[in-house]
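A.,

Following up on our hallway conversation. Structure tokens first:
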């Protein structure tokens, strides 16, 4: 959540936005005791939600935000999963670099060195690794108080490819950090990418990479949410 500077300075003098959000989290951790765990979704379901394997239901979001034990457990699972994922990525990168260095050593040991000369047009093609694409979600007006937008006549369509995607968010969307999650028709998360949205010419716009080359054609669901919030807005997607 990002507060307007004038509003924040007026009501919370001397308190930064990060301190405000931290205080809100600490408040929720203790403000809603539920010792009998009534209505709690259970450890397995919290794990699925924390790891973004499936989009949460509205009632699940409401419960987690008003149940201190679930809120604490959700964030503990999410934090541990992020640490594990970051470690796996670092190990994979290190292994890839090691393999590349070793392969290069073997290649240059047994092959003479040469410098290729690419024509100007080939060099330009090599730079264009991503296809630029813009999608306009402003026609998907969000109903106030709901997590699902009103649908336009047809879903958002993508071609399979490595896309440099410019997303124009619905009217009224705030600036800030957003998470873009793509789920298949079974509700299984395919990938998650983060991006910063800024207002340009009165349009809240985010630019993010979308690599769809490994996905099969079909129907998907794109969810977009502020990283400081639980609630997400869903959009139907078709990949051709």
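Then the amino acids I'd put at each of the 240 positions:
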């Amino acid at each position: 959540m990002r507060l307007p500077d004038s509003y924040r300075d007026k009501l919370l003098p001397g308190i930064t936005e990060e301190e405000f959000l931290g205080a809100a989290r600490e408040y929720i951790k203790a403000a809603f005791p539920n010792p009998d765990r009534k209505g709690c979704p259970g450890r397995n379901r919290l794990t699925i939600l924390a790891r973004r394997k499936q989009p949460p239901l509205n009632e699940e979001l409401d419960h987690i935000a008003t149940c201190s034990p679930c809120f604490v457990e959700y964030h503990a699972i999410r934090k541990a999963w992020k640490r594990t994922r970051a470690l796996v990525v670092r190990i994979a990168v290190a292994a890839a670099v090691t393999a590349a260095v070793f392969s290069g050593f073997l290649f240059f040991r047994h092959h003479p060195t040469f410098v290729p000369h690419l024509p100007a047009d080939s060099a330009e093609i090599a730079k264009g690794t991503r296809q630029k694409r813009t999608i306009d979600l402003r026609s998907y007006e969000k109903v106030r108080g709901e997590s699902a937008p009103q649908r336009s006549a047809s879903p958002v369509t993508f071609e399979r490819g490595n896309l440099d995607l410019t997303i124009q968010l619905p009217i009224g969307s705030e600036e800030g950090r957003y998470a873009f999650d793509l789920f298949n028709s079974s509700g299984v998360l395919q990938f998650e990418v983060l991006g910063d949205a800024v207002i340009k010419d009165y349009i809240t716009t985010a630019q993010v990479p979308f690599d769809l080359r490994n996905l099969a054609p079909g129907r998907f669901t794109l969810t977009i949410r502020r990283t400081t919030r639980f609630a997400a807005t869903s959009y139907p997607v078709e990949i051709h």
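The domain at 121-239 is CATH 2.60.40 (Immunoglobulin-like). Curious whether your intuition agrees with the design.

B.
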